[in-house]
Specification:
23 strands; Phosphorylase Kinase, domain 1; single chain; flat; 3 domains; seven-stranded antiparallel sheet; 17 helices; seven-stranded mixed sheet; Transferase(Phosphotransferase), domain 1
Amino acid sequence: MKPIPIWVFLILLFFLFQSTKSAELDAIDALVSFFEDLSGYFSISSPVSGWIRTSDPCKNNWTGIVCYDQTPSIKSITFESFNLSGTFKPNTICSIASLASSIVVISLNNNNLRGENLEAISNCKKLTHLYISRNQISGILPDSLSHLNNLKKLDISNNAFSGTLSSLPRISGLIEFIAQNNQLSGSIPEFDFSNLATFNVSNNNLSGPIPPGGDLFNATSYLGNPQLCGDPLPNLCETQRATPPSAAQNSSDPKKSGPSSVEILMYSGYVLVGLGLFFVIMIKLCKRKGTKKEELVEEGDYPRSKEEEEDASKTLTFASNEFRSIAMSKSEVFAGNSVESGPVSSSLIVLTSPEVNGLKFEELLKAPAELLGRGKYGSVYKVNCEEQGMTLAVKRIKDWSLPSNDFKLRMKRLNHVKHRNVLPVVAFYCSKQEKLLVYEYQPNGRTPTGQTFDWSSRLGVASTIAEALAFMHDELHRDSIPHGNLKSSNILFNKNMEPCISEYGLMAVDNSDNSPAIDIVNNTSQLNPDQIESGFRLDIHALGVILLELLTGKPSMVQNNGMDLAKWVVSVVKEEWTVEVFDRALIREGASEERMVNLLQIAIKCVDRSPESRPSINQIALMINNIKEEDERSMDVSESPFEIRN
C-alpha cells in the first residue's frame, strides 16, 4: 500500500483551519449583530469597549463578555443597567452552534429593550441563567423554554409578557422563577416548590387555586392577582369555604349535641393537672428570680455608665431575662429546607455547619462571651462553647423591624448563595424580641494594615473581594439584596489568611456616600428599580473606599485636612500630586507605581459622586484582575533564572 502523500494532509489541514476560522468569524459577526440590535444600531462609547468585527471577544476583553479560562469560547453576556434601547433577538446568537453550546448566562436586566419572539432561546441548550427583567419585552411566554433542561434561574419580571406558565414545571432544575409585574394569565401549574428558592408571580392576571406546596412562599409572591385563591392568600377558594362534611354531620346528629359525662370528667382532670403545673412553675420561677438575679445581664446594647462599659468588654454571661424566657417558651429548628417547631431543648436554626447542630439556644445564651465591638446595627460577641469545643461569633441585631417570617426567608435565600470568600451564617435565632446570627469565629480578624501588608497581598485582597462581591451581586440582584454595610471592618481573614466578606445582606443599606437614605431591607416592595439599584451602587462606593484604604494605608474615618478619605484622595489627585496618596510602605517596597495608579483610578471611579457614573461590579472585578495578572507576570519575569543580554 502506497503511503498517502504529505500534500494530501496539508490540504486537509488547510480546509480544517479554514472551516474553524469561518466558524469563529460567524460567531463574532453574530455577537456584533446581537449587540447592534440591543443598542438600537447606535454605537455606544464609554463604558462599552470592543464589540467590533476585527477583534476577538476573549482576547480583547469585550465589555460584558466573560470567556472560559480553558477554551476561548463565550461563557456569559452581561449588560445590566446600560440604558440599551434596542431589541433583544436571541435567535442571532442561539442559531450559531459554537455560541449556543457555550453560553450559560444572558443578563440584560434594567434596560429599555423590546422584543416579542423568544422561541429561539431554546437553542442555547447550555443556558443556566436568563435575566431580562425591567425591560419592555412583550409577547407570549414561549413553551420552548421547557427545552432548557439546564436552566436554573429565570427572571422575566417587570415586562409585558402574556400567556400561561404551563410549560415551566417541565424545567426540572429550576430553582428561581421571578415573573411579577407582567400580563400572565391562566392557573399556576404544579411546580416543584420544594426545589424553588425564589418564586414570585405577583401583579399578573393569574387565577384559580394556588397548587399544593405553593404556601412555602408568603403572600407577597402572589399578591396582585385578584382571581387567585388559597393559602397563603387571605381569600379562600370555594372548596375551602364549604362546610366540612364532618362538621355538618356533627351538627345534625342529636347524639352529639353535647359532651358526654366521660368527656366532662376527662376535661376536668386536664384542668386540674394544668392548674397544678402552673403553680409548680410559678414557685420555681420565684425561687430562681431570687437566687440568680445578680447573674443576669441587663437588657440593652449600650452600658449606661463607665463602669458598665468596662464590664461589658470583659468575659460576661450572654443572657438576659428576656432571652431566657424566650428560650424556655420557644425554639425553632431548621433542617435542610424545612422549618419545624420543637421543644425547649431543640437546636438553633442551623443552616450550613454540621458542627453546631447539637448546640442549643439556651446553651448559647449561657456560654461565656466576650464583647468584640458595637456598631450602628448591633453588637458582636465571641462566644466560647466549651462543651462543644467550638468558638463562634454571634451578631445581635439592633432595631431591625423585618418580620420574623421574612427574616427566615431571607436567611434561606442567602443560604442558597455561597462563595468561598463570603462568610456564611451557620445558624440563627429569630423572635419578635431578638435576632441573633451565628458565624464561625475567624481567628485572624480584620484586614491587616500598615507596613506588614505588602503590595501583592493588598492587590490580592482587592481582587478577591471584588470577585466575591461581583458573584453575590449577580446572584442576588433580582432579590434586591446588596451587601448594605460593606466596609473594611467587615473584611475578615480565615485560617488560610484568605479575605472573607462578612455580614452580606443582613443590614439596612448604609448611606455611606450621602445619597438619599434607603432602607432596602424593609421597603423592597415599595421601591422602584432606580431606588433598588442605588443599593448596589452604594456597595460600589464602599468597595472604592476599601481600595483607597489599601492604597493609602489610612482608615476611612481618619480626617485629612477636614475631609474624609475619598474626598482627600480626589483633591490630591486633582492637584496632580498622585504619588502623595500612596502608603510610604509601598513606595519603600518598590511596588509598581504604574499598577498602583491603575488601581487608584479604579477606586476613584467607584467613589464618583454620581452613582450612575460608577462602573459595574463585573467591570471592576475584571479591571482589578487584569492588574493582578500583570503584576504576577512581572514577578515571574523578575524571578526568572535566565538573564537577557544585549
